[in-house]
Amino acid sequence: MTVHEQVEIELKFDVDAGQPIPDLTTLPGVATTTGPIVEQLDATYFDTENLDLADHAVTLRRRTGGHDEGWHLKRPGTERGRTERQVPLDAAGDDAHAVPAELIEPVRVHLRSRSVSPVAAIGTRRQITEARDSEGTLLAVLCADLVTARSLLPGGTGQVWSEWEFELVADFDDDAAVELLESAEALLRAAGARTASSGSKLARAIGSTPGHRENRRLPAKPTALELVVTELARHRDQLVAWDPAVRADADDAVHQMRVATRRLRSVLKAFPGVLDGPEPERLGEEFKELAAILGVARDAEVQAERYRDLLEDENPSAALESALVEAQNQRYHRGRKAAVAAMTSDRYFRLLDAIDALLVDPTPGENAQVPARAALRDAVRSSRKSVLKAQKKLSRYDEGTPEWTEQLHVVRKKAKRLRYVAEAGATLRGSLHSDEARTAKRIQAALGDANDASISREVLAVAAGSIGVDPTDAFVLGRLDAREQAEHDRALKRYSDVAGDL
């Protein structure tokens, strides 16, 4: 299957029908133009009954005609533009309504268990003018489109309009791209272009969407409920953003999605009485379970990277390197596969639906109208006391005992919760809890490093017993173990230095 993915960087404008295009050779770097090249494009756009894709600024279409006919999926991408994925027309067989799996998987987090069907039919008569540099390299294209659109939704109507799209084609660096786009915008506006009334042809064809992704801005004096809902929405959006990256095995994706789930759970747990009913606790437990599932792959990822770094200056045998690095890589891939399976389950989709429903219609608790700053102060104070209590209990155990080691984990987890709660004030202007957040983060990091070193020593011991260790590898394992012990001790020293700062 041929899958092509690129970042689409373009400007879009409304224009009067038949508006002549300006001379593009006045733009920086443009020496010649070719065209117009005329294409007739016919596209069917797909979405769920609730327009879940459009609600997340995603378009999914099957287009015939033109140089790039096929199935297209466009998603919000980098700051520079949208990400477009393309597969051939026959990717899912002859059925024109059978969407290829390669385009469903990246938006499964939006579709969940819901099916898609046609929501709009759009025909475009396109005239393409190509802008080239002095060596003939294609830099950009200006598409003058006459659009005929018909909404297939209940009560939908037809529309006709004209627009211009100026799209970069060459691989520009950021400064060159900005310069060309700014110059093009000025030139096209001077020639009669107007700000586009919609961000995409589909948006104009079908109109407004349900919109449960509206930007939430806290008022000047927010309530506890407004703060909690804003924070939950922020972390929900992060989880949704990283979901496709986990499915695609993108770098650091499992880690970032796991952090989002933990932050969601922390907010649900840290503000008692702000949300009413059993739902916050139930969702918190669901997010805890999801974080644990993601944690299998994440822990293996950390260990694999750790052993790659440790072995960089050593000369291990292939067997030892496999027992350390490759074994963790395999564990990571098994863990990520299990995570993706969980993320394709009805249970996961119900969790996403439930957090969406809570954000749209939260049930206020008895503390919902408490001022946000007061609620945050109380939440930080409670989390801080929890850390101090855990530290006090730690001091009762002898260092190195199983009880002491277990209590270190408790301190680390409670410090992490304090950090997340204190950082929840970032959306409040002039938050007073940044010091607690920084200290908690330092405690969490130090104890996390100590824990990673301890786990690594256990893995090293298992590796020593699971392979026929030759004398050279025995020395390597001994050096690695000594380095991990030293790292463990340094991490505990860092914790000791900061533990009393809360």
Question: Would you mind describing this structure in some detail?
Answer:
It comes from Williamsia phyllosphaerae. This is CHAD domain-containing protein. Residues 221-502 form the CHAD domain. Residues 6-212 form the CYTH domain. By secondary structure, the protein is of the alpha+beta class. It has a 10-stranded antiparallel beta sheet with strand order 1-6-5-4-3-7-8-9-2-10. The model has no long low-confidence stretch (mean pLDDT 90). The protein has 2 domains: 4-206, Hypothetical Protein Pfu-838710-001, CATH 2.40.320; 224-501, CHAD domain, CATH 1.40.20.10. The protein has 14 helices and 10 strands. A hairpin with a 5-residue loop joins strand 5 and strand 6.
Report the CATH superfamily of the largest domain.
CHAD domain
Per CATH, the class of the largest domain reads: Mainly Alpha
Task: Please report the total strand number as a whole number.
Answer: 10
Main beta sheet strand tally, sense and closure: 10 strands, antiparallel
What's the CATH architecture name of the largest domain? Alpha solenoid
Query: Numbering strands along the chain, what is their spatial order in the largest sheet?
Result: 1-6-5-4-3-7-8-9-2-10
> Fraction of residues in helices?
40-55%
N- and C-termini, Cα separation: 56 Å
Number of domains: 2
Low-confidence stretches: none
User: What fold name goes in the CATH topology slot of the largest domain?
Assistant: CHAD domain
- Sequence of secondary-structure elements: EEEHEEEHHEEEHEHHHHHHHHHH
Average pLDDT, all residues: 90
